[in-house]
Design goal:
Organism: Salix suchowensis
Biased composition (Polar residues): 254-272
Structural class: alpha+beta
Largest sheet: 6 strands, antiparallel
Strand content: 15-25%
Domain PIPK: 1-404
Shape: globular
Helix content: 25-40%
Biased composition (Low complexity): 273-294
Number of helices: 10
Radius of gyration: 21 Å
Number of strands: 12
Protein name: 1-phosphatidylinositol-4-phosphate 5-kinase
């Protein structure tokens, strides 16, 4: 196995490269309509991130051209303090997120151990961090931003997206106030997934490795962002409202404080522009998910068989277009998913899954400890999101084992 980071000097993890990008004021496509024309830039740990990019077949030159494009920089500065994800329009594999300076420091501090974990776990489900940068227009504010892998491709036929933490207090979308393209939460979740036995074992094993790493780093509050799609041959059978093809999910969830997708993320210039109406989230596609024909089941089993023969194939990666069968189950109550199938019996349907563990840089700091102490007085401490990293990792893994099952 090629060692990508072993020979890097410790200085590489503290290095930074500075340069200036110039744009013509008179250019109608100029980044900023105000007086700015020159931007001071800093790329943190360029040698380190160059190797991470190589690990995932991202060309460094293409990467730099993508994040320095006029459109990308315009979107970064128009985001202000909004930390939602912004798709890199010129590269479908990347998204950027504006981050506060404190989070940038946390990322750099965790970077050496993060790199080692990625190298030792090539199938890691952690979202891939491709770079940390800042840009400052002459006479303007300094903006820090990070670049991540795009979890859900723009052309995927997504009809449900969930952010799952394994907790249940406050983990439900308020339907009367829900907006289109809302990311659903744990208490909205009503599916169980059946996977090929080899894939199931590999998946839960990798989730454990990733959670052990995050626990050791003192990290909590992460989520499994999962997009559920119908196989390509079933696209025509899905209601046009249920297309989620415009949504992107990086290491930061592209979600505002009210739980809705940021408007910047909705129009990426890829695929259709139709959206999901989350106010109907409990019923949308319910009939579709609660039934399938025997031919559909056999079709999924044939795909599973192909993967079983080559579980380590370079063409297959955990969480990237993973075939599964699914059934609807009752909503999670008090941290448990119902063990019974839907009222219609053992019906199921074929789906394709895209997922990753996101929001992986939140430490269990003083603010989180105080939040835990306060909420534990009012609620069951097991039900709240804010718990210590060890308890968080254990609960998260328990929840993952309840929603992913072996397809016999």
């Amino acid at each position: 196995m090629t060692m990508y980071f072993k020979d890097l000097p410790s200085l590489a993890f503290r290095d930074a490269q500075r340069n200036t990008v110039r744009y013509r004021k008179q250019d109608p496509g100029c980044v900023d309509d105000r007086v700015y024309s020159d931007y001071k830039c800093k790329d943190y740990c360029p040698d380190v991130f160059r190797r991470i990019q190589k690990l995932r077949n991202i060309d460094r030159s293409d990467y730099m051209m993508s994040i320095r494009s006029d459109l990308t920089i315009r979107e970064i500065f128009s985001a202000g303090k909004d930390t939602s994800a912004i798709p890199v329009s010129v590269d479908d594999r990347l998204v950027v997120a504006v981050v506060p300076k404190s989070e940038k420091k946390a990322m750099l501090q965790m970077l050496p151990s993060y790199c080692f974990h990625l190298e030792m776990n090539r199938d890691s489900l952690l979202s891939i961090l491709y770079g940390i940068h800042y840009m400052k227009p002459i006479g303007g504010p300094k903006v820090y931003f990070s670049v991540y892998s795009r979890v859900i491709p723009s052309d995927a036929n997504i009809f449900r997206v969930f952010a799952l933490k394994g907790s249940w207090k406050g983990r439900k979308i308020n339907k009367p106030r829900a907006k289109e393209n809302s990311i659903l939460k744990d208490m909205d979740f009503s599916f169980r997934f059946y996977l090929d036995p080899l894939i199931h074992e590999k998946l839960l094993g990798q989730i454990k490795h990733d959670c052990d790493f995050l626990e050791a780093q003192g990290i909590m509050d992460y989520s499994l962002l999962i997009g559920i799609a119908l196989p390509p041959q079933d696209k025509d059978s899905v209601d046009s409202r249920s297309s989620y093809s415009e949504v992107t999910f990086p290491c930061h969830s592209p979600v505002n404080s009210n739980g809705s997708i940021n408007s910047n993320v909705q129009n990426t210039g890829h695929g259709d522009s139709s959206t999901v109406n989350s106010a109907d989230s409990s019923s949308l596609e319910s009939e579709r998910i609660s039934s399938c024909s025997s031919e559909e089941v056999e079709g999924t089993q044939s795909v599973h068989s192909h993967i079983s023969e080559e579980p380590d194939s370079s063409e297959f990666r955990l969480g990237v277009g993973m075939p599964a069968r699914t059934i609807r189950s009752e909503l999670m109550k008090a941290g448990h998913v119902s063990s019974t199938r839907s009222a219609g019996g053992p019906e199921c349907t074929d789906v394709v899954l895209y997922f990753s563990i996101v929001d992986i840089f939140q430490n269990y700091n003083l603010a989180k400890r105080l939040e835990h102490a306060y909420k534990s007085i009012k609620y069951d401490s097991r039900s709240i999101v804010t718990v210590n990293p060890k308890a968080y990792a254990s609960r998260f893994q328990d929840f993952m084992s309840m929603i992913f099952h072996v397809d016999c």
